[in-house]
Amino acid sequence: xxxxxxxxxxxxxxxxxxxxxxxxxxxxxxxxxxxxxxxxxxxxxxxxxxxxxxxxxxxxxxxxxxxxxxxxxxxxxxxxxxxxxxxxxxxxxxxxxxxxxxxxxxxxxxxxxxxxxxxxxxxxxxxxxxxxxxxxxxxxxxxxxxxxxxxxxxxxxxxxxxxxxxxxxxxxxxxxxxxxxxxxxxxxxxxxxxxxxxxxxxxxxxxxxxxxxxxxxxxxxxxxxxxxxxxxxxxxxxxxxxxx
Length: 244
Ligand code: OAD
Description:
By secondary structure, the protein is α/β, with parallel strands linked by helices. The chain contains ten helices and nine strands. It folds into two domains: 6-31 and 78-119 and 165-243, 3-Layer(aba) Sandwich (Rossmann fold); 40-76 and 128-158, SIR2/SIRT2 'Small Domain'. Helices cover 36% and strands 18% of the residues. 2'-O-acetyl adenosine-5-diphosphoribose (OAD) is lined by residues 23-25, 28-29, 34-36, 40, 51, 101, 119, 159, 161, 187-189, 191-192, 212-215, 217, 230-232.
């Protein structure tokens, strides 16, 4: 068991509307690299060369190589106890929304149902021009880049820097933020907007705000409860308390 404030313990028992925002930290224990920090992807690669529309227009092959590399890496990972704990929470709370910035699909693989993928999903592709969705493998060996039947370039179905988030997903996320009584920010550096604005928006709407992270973030001074440590250890403890 972990030591949590009385108000948090009370809400774990009484709340019906709960929302969780996750970031790369929740998948770190599954072996998916995070973005920031010494070992993060952005310490080794430059986002503007790999994760922007300009980068794709300039060098689509390089961008595809990077995404296929990450896709391959993610194909061999599986959900960890943090992901599984959120599945338990979804079963327990009447109105539960899981908002994720992760593109790895691990929440759905664990069994979460109501998942809002703010930044898309790395296993999916779409046409740059008409938006048609494509699943399936991309073969760069042929020397040809994949094209849609409309002639547009096919790209990974993820959100790049400078792009708008999918409108329906974003609306549903802010709806959940507006009605939640208890909001968890888990494994995110809380730096990338609009996701980063969700925890404080929830708090402004009266929600109790909990952060689960290895380290303090810019959000930490504003939370009602900071639980410092690995999400794979802390979330299962919260589930135990929720069920006790
Ligand atoms: P970051 O890499 O910025 O932050 C990961 C956070 O997880 C950090 O605050 C770590 O302290 C924390 N952390 C690491 N391991 C943890 C663990 N086992 N348990 C709990 N916390 C842990 O990742 P995000 O905040 O998700 O966007 O990054 C947000 C967005 O920036 C990403 O979605 C991506 C990136 O650029 C796009 O690609 C559009």
